[in-house]
Fold this sequence. Notes:
Distance between the termini: 83 Å
Strand order of the largest sheet: 3-2-5-6
Radius of gyration: 26 Å
Number of helices: 1
Strand content: 35-45%
Number of strands: 7
Amino acid sequence: xxxxxxxxxxxxxxxxxxxxxxxxxxxxxxxxxxxxxxxxxxxxxxxxxxxxxxxxxxxxxxxxxxxxxxxxxxxxxxxxxxxxxxxxxxxxxxxxxxxxxxxxxxx
Length: 107
């Protein structure tokens, strides 16, 4: 018993003084924001399902217009196509950086 107490105390001291090293990484994500003439616009990013740009709330509220809506995508190379009335008005390839927002102007 006399030998066990000093060994337990020594183990506790050694483990309490340990140094832990780590890195906290933020998740990889980028954003696309559409500005300009967004009415009746349909967006397709790469081979994802196309979606319509429309206000998230009342259309007269500037805070809910698509101009203030960011769409999350993975960083990297993406092809963005925007069509209005069956006509493609934007067809561009963009490279999105990590934690950045790319604005796509719709004429």
